[in-house]
């Protein structure tokens, strides 16, 4: 028997349009000799082809992932960190991982290599565009670990030092989480600004971790692990 495309063979078996067969395959609903195959162009001959009884005829949506960036990992290595092996066991999104989810990923909200915490990686052009254009207008939350001579620390100078283009950032909330850990929450914040403000208040920054972007939080994700952005989550 001559090889034939999987989508053509499936369409013949199901008696359905080829476009519908292609969507089943791309959705991860088709097995060839017991193995899921997501490529409609895959060549088949006499293999056993099965459609999952739970199969739905729907287009595979572009996905976004939330990664707990470890400290020291550069931006150009973050997308490669998104693999089936590093998906968090805490992922409760209900999204079924597909091979296509791990292609065409782009970094939407990065962090400097030295810092850690929440970064966003996505295939979705709407998410990418929103975060690339609106991140500075979105509230973010950071934890900053500091050290140095406490007698010299000046929180008033710290607040005044949160500046962008010479103008103080309004509305930022600063609170102590422990003797050497500060919490910052506000719009327009970024790690460079936090470092400069802490230096101006006689504090030496040891580490910065981003906990939240808008209404989306890091939660209990372990460093180096990721989860899907839930359908009901909005930045």
From TrEMBL:
InterPro entries membership: PsdUridine_synth_cat_dom_sf, RsuA_PseudoU_synthase, S4_RNA-bd, S4_RNA-bd_sf
Domain RNA-binding S4 stretches: 4-60
Catalyzed reaction equations: uridine(35) in tRNA(Tyr) = pseudouridine(35) in tRNA(Tyr); uridine(2604) in 23S rRNA = pseudouridine(2604) in 23S rRNA
EC number assigned by the record: 5.4.99.21
Stored Pfam families: S4 (PF01479)
MF annotations from Gene Ontology: 23S rRNA pseudouridine(2604) synthase activity; RNA binding
Keyword RNA-binding: yes
This protein's record includes keyword RNA-binding: yes
GO BP terms, alphabetized: pseudouridine synthesis; RNA processing
Full protein name: Dual-specificity RNA pseudouridine synthase RluF
